[in-house]
Description:
153 residues, globular, alpha+beta
Amino acid sequence: MPAVCRKATTDDIxxxxxLIKGYAEKGIMLPRSREMLVDQLEWFIVAELEGxxxxxxxxxxxxxxxxxxxxxxxxxxxxxxxxGSKMVDYLIEEARQLDIPKVMALTYEVNFxxxxxxxxxxxxxxxxxxxxxxxxxxxLHCCDEIAVLKMLx
Length: 153
């Protein structure tokens, strides 16, 4: 039975928190507090498999024509099954519904995003991202993430 993507609900907050925390502790995702998850819940999705949440992701609006995919993660034991791509497709469809033509991400998983139609770009083309999030990151002046962009036609 394939994973199903859906909008996150308040019942998912603790699972979202724990999934993101696992990635944040490895230094590969920014942490999100429970309060932040509640505030931004409308932007979060989950991937569910046989009643269990096995993945999450969200959009963050950075401007009139730009959203970021962030907090994209999959629980151990469920990677490599197409769940990440399914979540990216779902988030891209949400961006289309909002009439937002550009979707970006900062990632260490460049190949994954390239397989999903993104191109590597210079992160400096996203000042909106820098001032919204990067300014608070401990890696601000030594960021090693790669920026990717997908233009929606």
